[in-house]
Amino acid sequence: MNPFLRRLVIPLLAIGAGAGLLEAKIIDRTVATVNNVPIMLSEFEKNATPILEQFKQSTPIEQQTPERVADIKKKVLDQMIDDRLLTQQAKSLGVRVSKLEVDDGIKKVRSRFATDEEFNKELQKDGLNYDEFRNHISDQISVIKLIDQEVKAKTTPPTEADAKQLYDTLVAILHNQPVPGSHTAAEIDELQSLAKALQHRFGERVRARHILIRVDPHASEAERSAALKKIQDIQSQLKNGADFSELAKKYSQDPGSASRGGDLGYFTKGDMVPSFEKAAFSLDVGQTSDIVKTDFGYHIIHVDEKKAESKFGFDEVKDDLREYLFQQRAAKKFEEYVKDLRSKAAIKINDLS
């Protein structure tokens, strides 16, 4: 999905009255209307609750002020209002969604669940029957098609000269030279992030395997000692000629790589925690590290391959830069499009507290 769509499309299976339908009938109320179409409190809470819970888990308690909570709620409601407006506009313009497109959308959602029973339980949990869910999928597809038609199709594609100008700016940033042109602080931050991403893509890369024995951050001294002894025993087996991949499959407690013999694939600097990264990049191809301690536990690392840093020229990145510029332009046009829809709509917002 295009980046500028992330803020407007309510996640699939994230709409409905939620749990406690009988209670919802008693306490439910309208928190906003969009051209006389209501947004109910139950629906709003279904969307806001996971975001607020994530905020509480990731934010120090002293920063969880009523003002910040209110701001999060406002942003969630604004997103839902935008979604209503876009769905209404798609219907007003006669954007058509075929049965085949809806079927395909449902299949993609259904594929996330192991069984039909799990899928149906999720629908029930979200207060949806199958027809309501199908209509929701249809609405989402119509919004995507609307944006393709009214935003992307009307966005001027950047030229090669535009991409070259951006390339020169990024090169200047990477070489700590003055940035050409006039930019806001926010734009400079974004350009610096883009420059780092390109540097990351073309930087030195390592393909390594590892064996991990996990240690919980709150583990006792005895548990730490037991984990260290286990990794030392594995290290001893390696020194006696045991196969690294087989030991990784047998002992490693990293579920993401153990079944592949500990293979992590290629990674570059900044992808791993510092102590792991330092050890991996210091090894030659074919070498195995000593025991490495990280916040995850104890590791032994083996380097399979290395690729040297490569300098990138304009030809290597011009297509990516043109796509980046197109997305930036489309995002701006999208914001203008939604702002225009809001200016023409009858929107009423009630107190959320």
Task: Give the topology string: H per helix, E per strand.
Answer: HEEHHHHHHHEHHEHEEHE
Biggest β-sheet description: 4 strands, antiparallel
Beta-strand percentage range: 5-15%
Instruction: Using the CA coordinates, give the radius of gyration.
Output: 26 Å
Low-confidence runs of at least 5 consecutive residues: 1-26
- How large is the count of helical segments? 12
CATH architecture heading of the largest domain: Orthogonal Bundle
Molecular shape = globular
Question: CATH topology of the largest domain, what is it called?
Answer: Triger factor/SurA peptide-binding fold
Compute the average pLDDT.
90
Helix content: 55-70%
Task: Describe this protein's structure.
It is a single chain. The protein is of the alpha+beta class and 353 residues long. It folds into 2 domains: 3-150, Porin chaperone SurA, peptide-binding domain (Triger factor/SurA peptide-binding fold, Orthogonal Bundle), CATH 1.10.4030.10; 205-307, Chitinase A, domain 3. 55% of the residues lie in helices and 12% in strands. It is built from 12 helices and 7 strands. A 4-stranded antiparallel sheet has the order 4-3-6-5, sandwiched between helices. The protein has a 3-stranded antiparallel sheet with strand order 2-1-7. Strand 1 (30-34) and strand 2 (37-40) form a beta hairpin. Helix 7 crosses helix 8 (185-202). It is globular, with a radius of gyration of 26 Å. The protein starts with 20 loop residues before the first helix and ends with a strand. The relative contact order is 0.13. Residues 1-26 have low confidence and may be disordered.
